## 1
Amino acid sequence: GNSVTQMEGPVTLSEEAFLTINCTYTATGYPSLFWYVQYPGEGLQLLLKATKADDKGSNKGFEATYRKETTSFHLEKGSVQVSDSAVYFCALSSRAGGTSYGKLTFGQGTILTVHP
Amino acid sequence: EAGVTQFPSHSVIEKGQTVTLRCDPISGHDNLYWYRRVMGKEIKFLLHFVKESKQDESGMPNNRFLAERTGGTYSTLKVQPAELEDSGVYFCASSQEWGWNTGELFFGEGSRLTVL
């Protein structure tokens, strides 16, 4: 079956530090990959996505590259801000096996705290 | 435009009682999903509605859980009778469409359920 593994948290950084949150996956077929973010008091929202190998998703200074050879989709940002403090979820969607669209498989989430 | 709204935000009940969670999706979104996050673990898929029909309910844990979507608008998720292991955060999400390359789910803030 499908699975997503994220690096253990929480992650605590100082403002302007470099961020990497590791994500690896196991999936049948050719999945689409996503990063969702949940800010305090809000619902999850899509941060970025990639739908095929070597695609790079990017948004708000965050980037992630779909690496089929290493089955990874690591999230990176060159200079974090206090406002980036949130919970980050890596997820995949695979149509293989007749599963329905919208059936996302999530990682366990990584709490990021950025201090001034 | 209003986002996905969920009610209640937090519910505390005794084991054996009944709880009903409600979700109002974004207007015009035919697809509605329920997910659950238990004890800080990964978010897991419960089921998917397309309008009023259940497209995929493979993630429903057991027959104590009943989901409905009357008239293809709002949805309810009833847990009866509740058990301790049902505690967690229940997320609702909606989408206008879900294509292989375009899908994005819009999530509510979640309903936290505590079973004592």
## 2
Amino acid sequence: GDSVTQMEGPVTLSEEAFLTINCTYTATGYPSLFWYVQYPGEGLQLLLKATKADDKGSNKGFEATYRKETTSFHLEKGSVQVSDSAVYFCALSDQAPGKLIFGQGTTLQVKP
Amino acid sequence: EAGVVQSPRYKIIEKKQPVAFWCNPISGHNTLYWYLQNLGQGPELLIRYENEEAVDDSQLPKDRFSAERLKGVDSTLKIQPAELGDSAVYLCASSFEGNEQFFGPGTRLTVL
């Protein structure tokens, strides 16, 4: 079945460092891909998405490119801030409309 | 605009006791989802409603879990009886016509 694999955390960075969180997926069709963020004590929020190959999703300085050839959707940010500390989830939506399949999440800690 | 509301935020019960969670989706959202999130894992879909109809309940353990959305608005998820392994966060999300899902803050259940 469909699945999503993320790099293990926690990821600890200093402020202004470059961030990459790896995400790869397995799907039978042509899924839409998402990154969600979960701040402490809050619900998941959609960060960005891409619906077809080579699309780039971007928001709040984060971006990710849908790579069909490598089945990847890596999250990047050029300069992280302390306020970016959260758990990040990669997800896909494939066969059933609206049905999301999530990765296990990656915790990001940014130190001043 | 109010987001997805869930209550209670935290619940502690002893095993074999019943428990219920309530969710009020964003006004106008016809699709409602219940997810289970175990510690250190991504959310997993339990059940999806379109209006009053449960259109995907394949992952709901029907021997002890039940859900309802009688008027197509708010929803209740019940566990009876609870087991130790049910300790987790129960997330509710809603969307309009299966588009972007908006998540509530979740209910953290601890079964002793």
